[in-house]
């Protein structure tokens, strides 16, 4: 009964978090973490989670990563890569380098610094898009640039996690051979996923030859998803997500890697039109997946992670310098790198480039995945470093909606800002 009691407490906190997030227009993730920390410090939730809650939490992050991948339009992503590659590249390298060298300066541990750098790399796409939508800026070219580059960052970060985490955890040797083996495994996994997409999930416009094969013609993904007139579509896609997550685990990678890839390769065209014109199986399934991932099971992961923040006055005061330096470094480095890349590699206007820089500030769900791997599962990240990362992520995520709201009048041209001859805001009509 303890497990059910703890789950009831957690879900109560999730509901409260969504209420507060709606009122404050901040990401509910912040409140999930705060609730978990509050409950464990009050003694309501245990410091050491039960096996049931840990398992529930693991399923939650798999579903979240799948939902994030499932939301993305891969064709739109490919089309936007040419303009956004610089934003993704420099917008990821800057926080990675800043986090690595900052944490190495304080703690002199290369493995710890690698984990901290990975945690500070990926951009919070959902947080940024919610913030842009609240300001009615979600349909701008700058929003598209943020979305595309953030997706590229996420894919790159997932690949980096797959390659660097085994090295940091000691599962692979830090040698040319060890790195080669890890890279080979990563390449093999992504090639296998690509092959699966071509054979099991073929597009109607390519590789028509495969459609003639009996196995694919009669038992392809469309048949799988449309089984029972599509009534089991949600179960089908979630099963695919879990199977590919397990496949990634067998390759030695975190299941979240496979879950995200599963979301990317399942496309709208795989859903058969329903006999009832009022039923859209794809969007219906998408809504259910989002609801399960973000409102039901997924939040348990963040609340459970928040329980790792056990208040210790001595630790809190001890890491204030680290928090201040790391936050300031990533704040400045992320904005400048993404902004300048948007301007000079993506040919965006200055007011768009600045919005892109601000939109790239949030730290994504992947940050908490890395923290969980490094702190909870492998004890690579120390308690001091964990406190520092959590506080930094919190401040950066709070900064996103606030800074976007403040920049909106300059972005729309109702307020003007110049530095010398450089017009940073949108010119007046």
Protein topology:
Layout: H1 2-24, H2 28-41, H3 51-71, H4 74-107, H5 110-119, H6 125-134, H7 141-168, H8 176-199, H9 208-211, H10 214-219, H11 221-225, H12 233-250, H13 255-265, H14 281-296, H15 298-306, H16 313-318, H17 320-344, H18 350-359, H19 365-377, H20 383-412, E1 418-419, E2 422-423
Antiparallel strand pairs: 1-2
Helix pairs in contact: 1-2, 1-15, 2-15, 3-13, 3-14, 3-15, 4-5, 4-7, 4-17, 5-7, 5-19, 6-7, 6-20, 7-8, 7-18, 7-19, 12-13, 17-18, 17-20, 18-20, 19-20
Notable traits:
429 residues, Na+/H+ antiporter like fold, two-stranded antiparallel sheet, mainly alpha
Structure description:
With 429 residues, this protein is mostly helical. The chain has one domain (2-423): Na+/H+ antiporter like fold, CATH 1.20.1530. Helices cover 74% and strands 1% of the residues. The protein is built from 20 helices and two strands. The protein has helices at 2-24, 28-41, 51-71, 74-107, 110-119, 125-134, 141-168, 176-199, 208-211, 214-219, 221-225, 233-250, 255-265, 281-296, 298-306, 313-318, 320-344, 350-359, 365-377, 383-412; strands at 418-419, 422-423. The protein has a two-stranded antiparallel ribbon. The termini are far apart. 47% of the residues are buried. The model has no long low-confidence stretch (mean pLDDT 80).
């Amino acid at each position: 009964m303890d497990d059910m009691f703890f789950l009831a407490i957690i879900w109560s906190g999730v509901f409260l978090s969504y209420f507060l997030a709606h009122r404050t227009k901040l990401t509910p993730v912040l409140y999930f973490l705060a609730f978990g920390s509050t409950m464990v410090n009050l003694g309501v939730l245990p410091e050491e989670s039960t096996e049931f809650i840990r398992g529930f939490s693991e399923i939650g992050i798999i579903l979240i990563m799948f939902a994030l991948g499932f939301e993305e339009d891969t064709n739109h992503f490919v089309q936007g890569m040419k303009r956004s590659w610089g934003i993704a590249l420099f917008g990821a390298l800057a926080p990675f380098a800043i986090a690595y060298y900052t944490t190495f300066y304080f703690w002199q541990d290369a493995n710890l610094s690698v984990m901290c750098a990975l945690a500070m790399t990926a951009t919070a796409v959902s947080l940024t898009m919610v913030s842009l939508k609240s300001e009615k800026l979600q349909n701008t070219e700058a929003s598209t640039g943020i979305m595309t580059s953030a997706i590229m960052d996420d894919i790159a970060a997932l690949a980096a996690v797959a390659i660097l985490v085994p090295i940091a955890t000691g599962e692979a040797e830090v040698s040319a051979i060890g790195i080669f083996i890890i890279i080979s495994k990563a390449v093999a996994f992504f090639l296998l996923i690509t092959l699966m997409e071509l054979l099991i999930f073929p597009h109607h416009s390519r590789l028509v030859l495969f459609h003639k094969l009996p196995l694919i013609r009669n038992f392809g993904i469309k048949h799988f998803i449309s089984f029972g007139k599509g009534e089991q579509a949600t179960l089908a896609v979630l099963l695919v997500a879990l199977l590919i997550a397990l496949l990634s685990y067998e390759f030695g990678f975190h299941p979240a890697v496979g879950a995200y890839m599963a979301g990317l390769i399942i496309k709208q065209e795989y859903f058969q039109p329903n006999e009832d014109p009022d039923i859209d199986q794809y969007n219906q399934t998408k809504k259910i997946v989002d609801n399960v991932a973000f409102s039901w099971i997924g939040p348990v992961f963040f609340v459970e992670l928040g329980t790792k923040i056990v208040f210790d006055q001595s630790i809190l005061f001890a890491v204030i310098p680290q928090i201040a330096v790391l936050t300031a470094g990533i704040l400045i480095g992320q904005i400048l790198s993404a902004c300048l890349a948007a301007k000079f590699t993506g040919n965006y206007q200055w007011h768009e480039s600045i919005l892109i820089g601000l939109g790239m500030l949030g730290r994504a769900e992947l940050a908490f995945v890395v923290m969980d791997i490094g702190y909870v599962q492998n004890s690579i990240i120390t308690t001091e470093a964990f406190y520092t990362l959590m506080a930094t992520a919190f401040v950066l995520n709070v900064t996103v909606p606030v800074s976007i709201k403040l920049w909106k009048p300059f972005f729309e041209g109702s307020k003007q800002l110049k530095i010398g001859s450089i017009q940073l805001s949108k010119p007046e009509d």
